[in-house]
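Pasting two entries for a bug report.
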Amino acid sequence: MFMSDPKPSPLEIFTKRQEFGLENSVEMLIDIIETEKNNSKRKEAVKYLGRIASYIPQLKNECFTTTENILISEDKIDLKCEAAKALGKLKNDKALKPLRWMLELKIDSVELRLAILKAIMTIKFNEPQINVFIKELDSRYNAIREFVRNHLVEVEPEILINSLVTNLKSEDISNEHKTEIIKLIGYELSSINIAFQDMNYIKVKYPKLIPRLYSDKMVLLNQITRTLKEEDSKLIDSAVSILKLLSPEINKDVIKLLLSDDFIVRKNAITLTGKLKLKDAVDTLITGLDNIYSEVSVATIEALGEIGDLSAVPELLDVLNVEDISFEYTDIDMKFYIMDAVKKIYSNNQDADFRYLFSLLKSDSEALKESIAFILGEIGNEEFTRPLIDLLKIRNLDVKKNTIIALGKIGTIDPLHSLIEILENPDTYWLIKKVAVDAIYNIFQRNWYRVKAENGDLERTLNKHIGTLIDYLKRSEAENTKVKVSLIKFLENYGEKSALIALLSRVNDFPRIIRIHASNAIKKIEEKIEERLGLDNTD
């Protein structure tokens, strides 16, 4: 005959603890833990042993001994986790030692390590425990790093930053660990929500914090410059937050590292001078423009761009002042870094005078003129239109191409006549023609809304140019395929009924792509006309 288990379950023991008696209940739970073969029951018994102990202070030590033994000696992870939770509920300081010991064993279980950390935090969270959590910032498990980070930021900023900087000094921790510490320091400083130009708030709110950081400024700077990674934006943001708070006292120290023999330190110091916008670093940075290591040169160019000092422009552009054709191919990336940096510098100086750039358009260097045309297009001021139109006379294809693209980006209607002349010139290379049509398209996009606002003179001017382009497409049977396609796309958007004849003349062209685009353009224009007629009839 089937016999039921005469022993009450752990839940029943806990529920009927008053009926059984508190001491008896504890003994019954311990008996299940020590003798029961069913793992689920043992786990449940550990759980309720931790809960029931709060009702009987005199038996806390006995409960502690049992749960500690489970944590240390038991093989099953789920039982260890339950024991860690129970120790947390007991809130016995004696549990801190075995809990920390378990962490040091490097047990490969996220669940157990989290249970231990939660227990430690529940029992006590003073400086020693904070340091335990800081140590876990180096965990290979993202869940653990997130957990400890989320709880560390709840610590009083002065206490937390003091502990973080102290740990940063350790020679026994990895660079990855230092990275996490720097990130957390920067995050904590940013979360205080202070204006770095005025430290009065932080001095009043956290009077010990600034002196603490100043006393270890070189530790912070040295570790930052050794661990900084360009691809880690959070690390860079944190590093900048820390150093901005230490500015201007730290500025000279950062600039000194620009001359470091250590390649990594030097490159990272260059990056920091840009992020901190240290104008005093410009002269030193310029000496590194032609460094044998391209990474240093690129970092230097980017830093000069971020600092935004106009005095660096001649030095930057001088790098582009070459006539060696191989330069165009071997250093093409460097070229674009320089052009982008010059653009940033002028963008950071709203009242800048552009006469220096205009003067370079008369340089003997075709490479330099090409670059200046590109830069002017990127900045996009309307005052650049006339100097760029004058540059269209240059025969060099690269100069002409960049000039046309720049005029398209700026978007004034003044160059339209010159661009159409380029298109109609039978000696013009097909690529230049295509670029010219694309620039015309961009100019129309920038100005068409003004036609809709009933600007009569503008409408007549634009329609005149549309007529010229329609006529050119109609008679351009031998034109390059890509040029034809660009013209067709233009008329698809800006052509009216008068464009249909030119488009129809291209529906039988070879290759097939021209026929497809011409047919689509005709269909779109016809739909546009029908829609307009429908609206007129409705009126």
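Entry 2 (this is the one that rendered wrong in the viewer):
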Amino acid sequence: MGYQVLARKYRPQRFADVAGQDHVTRTLMNALSQNRIAHGYIFSGHRGIGKTTIARIVAMALNCRTEIGTPARPTPEPCGVCDSCIEVRQGNAVDVIEIDAATNRGIDEIRELRDAARYAPARDKYKIYILDEAHQITEAAFNALLKTLEEPPSHVIFMMATTEPENIPQTIRSRCQHFSFHAVKFDDILAQLQMIATQEQVGAEDGALALLAEAGDGSMRDALSIMDQAIASAPMDSDRPVLSASQIRELMGAVPNAVFERLLEAVAAGKSSTLMEQLNDLLNCGHSASSLARQMIRYLRNALMAKLDGEQTQLLQISGDERARAARTAMLFTEEDLTRNLQIVLRTFDDLNCSQEQRFHLELGLLKLIHAQRLLPLEELLSSVAGGRGGLPSPRPVSSGPRPAASGASATGTPPSTMTSIVSTAAPIRPSSALPVVAAPIPRSPLGLANGGGSSVAGPSMPLPGPAFNDQRLSPAAVAVLEMDAPSIISLEAVPSPAPSVSNKLVDTISVATTVKAQGDSLAKPLVESIQLAVVSALAAAGHASASQLLNSGAWTLEGSSLRIEVPGMGKKMLSLTVNLAAEKIIRQELQRLGAPTRFMVVPGEGAAASAAPMATPMAGSVQETALAHPMVQRAKEIFGAEVRSVLDLRNK
């Protein structure tokens, strides 16, 4: 016998060998053991997942000459050694007739089948008809088969395999048992490929087999066909083929997902020139624009699924390394951004199919991804219109990505061990109010807070020196900077803001004294507090006063590679309304700008005490004080005996 392709050589011959269809095999085996055999079956599902294979196994089990329960056949599985089983496996059984319904689809062929079905089987117990691609049978032919399916002879069984069950008339489907097959899971395909590689004595990297399993796209037959082709093109080592990931990518014309990760990093950072240069390199290497768009769609889809349900979700049928890669990309964007990006690339892919200048369409589509980063959220646009503003809000700035932290000596020659202390207000306050300030030793390298210029200071909306704070997004604040050697006791004096429009609510001078330590454990809290000040200031500068004030009152902790912000006295629904998608975007951009972890979560305070915590005494002249003094609020408190726990300022600034 000549060479057999892997898909035929390793075709399952028993129910237990079928991968990924346990719900079907379990039901059929129970029906065989209980002798509850239907006269018609419909097997539907994705291509190459075992529909026809299971139909043949059922035919073998029905006509197997070995009785169920005997030592040779203890289960409903076919014995595989009797004449009937061997003939079905070889495809020359007299009483098991396979018909290609794609070519025998007319009414004349079905009439012949109907007439032949009246005669008893030549030798076996049942006469079995397997109709492959049954959805291609004409409506008139189905009508000719209808009466036979409704009242068939006791010795006839029909099994129809189809990829489009909706094209089979409802009158036919209602007379048959319908089994819907699932796409084979990534792990099941990978396990089967590993077993076949061992049997065929083929050396294969784990990454190579993972690529083959992913290329199968839920079809075992597709994965085995690609593996056959890869083995034929693989280099030989000690008389055995060796499969590598790079060789399989070259064979399939695929691009490593690391390339798409870099492309989307350029999109998140708003670097149009970098994006175009990387795309130019890919096109010059011979990759087609259509293939690149198709692969980017798949990668964006995986990133979106990782954003929705984490990298361990069952929605991701890819290897562990690729799951981690998709999760890293998902952290760069919000769910809204990923959805929009996927829609843009899908539309670009459609344009490529009917375009003569595919390169230009692909370049334009990728540039749209960067331009989309500047779009305003709909709720912000509607709120600006409802608030009666004179003009529309300004577009969002595109994040320039995390900036590298300075290392080594500063420009002034200060040694690396020198610390910089930061003092900033959390929010604009009145001159008469007490000002909560933080004086913290900050190392020059972590989180991008210190810069090479010798000073890194954050305050609301003032232009800040050094490359780490050059976007001028923070509002005016009182700032004091002092170079010092740790440990020491410092006393800081306020430095007036150089901004031309300084708020009259700022404190003119600040004096603070605190003891600082150089140990590692003592740095975590000041670092988190400095991050908190920068984020709160950025929210206030962007017009999210409620979110700024809310997060300023929360407890910020650094847990591994993510920030946890616990806000007391706030329910989940109200929290989501205050810290909305636009506010989350600003927080993420600010964390990225500082070089801090961009993964964060804002949660309500735990326990009854947190939920019942009364609102702190409002500052004089604040929105909270104005709201509490309003006659309607006072009247509501009297009527309902209520207490005000939080005040949110939803007005447009």
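Dev reply: Rendering is fixed now. As a check, the viewer should reflect this: The chain is about 45% helix and 10% strand.
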